[in-house]
Design goal:
heterodimer; A: alpha+beta; six-stranded mixed β-barrel; four-stranded antiparallel beta sheet; 14 helices; 60% helix; 16% strand; elongated; B: 234 residues; alpha/beta; six-stranded mixed beta sheet; 34% helix; globular
Amino acid sequence: MNIGPIGEYFNLALRNLKSRQLRSWLTIFGIVIGVFLIISLISLSEGLQDTIMTQLRMMGGDLIFVMPGGDFGDIMTAMIGGVELSNTDIRAIERTRGVEQVVIFPYATEVVRHEGAAKMILLAGIDWNRATKVMKEDMGYQTTEGDFPRTGRREALIGNLVPKDIFPGIKVGDEITVKGRKFQVSGILMSVGSKQDDSMIILDLDDFRSVTGKREGSPMAIVKPNPDFNIDDVVKNIRASLEESGRRRAGDDAPMFSVITSETVSDMVGNIMGVLQVIIIAFASIALIVGGIGIMNTMYTSVRERTREIGIMKAVGAKNSAILTIFLFESAIIGLIGGIGGTLLGIILAKAIEMYGNIHPMFYISASITPGLIIFGLTFSLLVGCLSGFFPARRAAQLKPVDALRRFE
Amino acid sequence: MVEAIIKLENVWKTYQLDKVEISALRGVSLEIALGGFVSIMGPSGSGKSTLLNMIGCLDIPTKGIVFLGGKDIARLSEDELAYLRGKTIGFVFQEFNILPNLTALENVTLPMVFQAVPLKEREERAKEILSSVGLANRIFHRSTELSGGERQRVAIARAFSNNPEMVIADEPTGNLDSVSGKKIMEILSNFHQKQGKTVVVVTHDPNIAGYSEQIINIHDGQIVVNGKKEKQAL
């Protein structure tokens, strides 16, 4: 098949690379590392973002979250440091104009027993009377088996990883024991996309407070606003209620609160992940640029070593464009093979981390490998190859035949 | 009157070495007739290679004009000159200069690639030429698998591949034993005699010069003898 001069130039480039295999593979390896970092880190950070966004979407757009702490940094400190909303704060929220329902989620780790096995498990307490409707309709909680518990029935709702990883084979109707009290499993939740939530056991709020001794507060309150009110107005009202209640209790030392909608949380997470991705791409790009410098170095060395060959090709009729194309093909091939290798390794690593996350109980992350990411990895590496090879290729193309032939004589 | 394939008019080639200006050619004028067999002779450093570069259009004069087929090469773009050179002139170098990564066949097809000759045609032609220089059974061998004489025959086959009007050979037998050298000169002589093509050879060897019809003697960048002679049998 006649594939024209371009095909011939490609064949020549391939031959040249094959004739310097060790050097070619070492150069390719530099690109592999850069692309590998980009693909694995981006796929994991996108996967993380997808997981968080999915969870936020499941919660719906019309919920308000109330947490102690004035800004995001304070929220994190409050959550890690165990700062909670007090019962007074929660009552202040409940009394706020435009608030339809308040759901609190206190949690604690306790030893749970089932058929002779004892495991430390995260327990949460929920007021089923108030929360079941909100959980089902606004937060996307569904059961795969059984149903939500009823108040006063000593029933428990278990996350979908409990029958798989924690108490294998546990089913609806089985009993669990917490601090000597028996609870019957009323339902198994559908996965909510979070390893921690999927491994949790939820009890009625009174039972939870009773078995854990946590009589007071909650780390967070989820508020369902009255649909007749504007959500932003309700946010302002809650903030005002909490400030007023806080001032009455503590004067100027009143605690700060964050009152944010799920939309704000989505934006915040989106922004943070966006910044994180820019940082990841920037660092991984440094590795790729180093790989590109490797290509440039290899190509300059190649031009120097093959000056006479370039002279011969020019003497037998090669135009500058032909020489430029042959050398550009060489660097592009290095870039592309490095890109393919790096993409494959990046996908393998990201999937391995995802698999590890599925096995490890406290670590949940998915890898988002999209065609766009693969195309980006390959295109970027090809571009790095072409750009790195351009100047050496131009130097080769601009050599005068007489100078190239005279060199090394 | 026989048409000139290459014509040099008052050609100077000057190199700058630090602050010293060196003239490798000093006002050289000559004509090489289409179908001629020319030897260029002279001691080392006399300007033979520079003259050959001018005749082969590998270099542009500092002063003066070089015409290839009636065209002033200084007025052509690099690409136009490359195309014209590839089509009109074949080169044979003392060090063979065949590309080591390529087989004999690929080396011979290479100039045709740059002239965009279709694959089938160039392979057929390359096999035919390699066969004519006695390398029919060596077409898939690389440079390292060939003897010096065979490499030079591959180089000659490559020089013939685009069916050029002129072949320029720089000391073509310089690195060969006498038997291989004689074979090479016979091939060049046949090319000249049977196909009526022009051959220009740079040589120190008076026996090689014996094949030629015109001998140009160069000394200190100037032509001192440019004489036609009857070809002698060797």
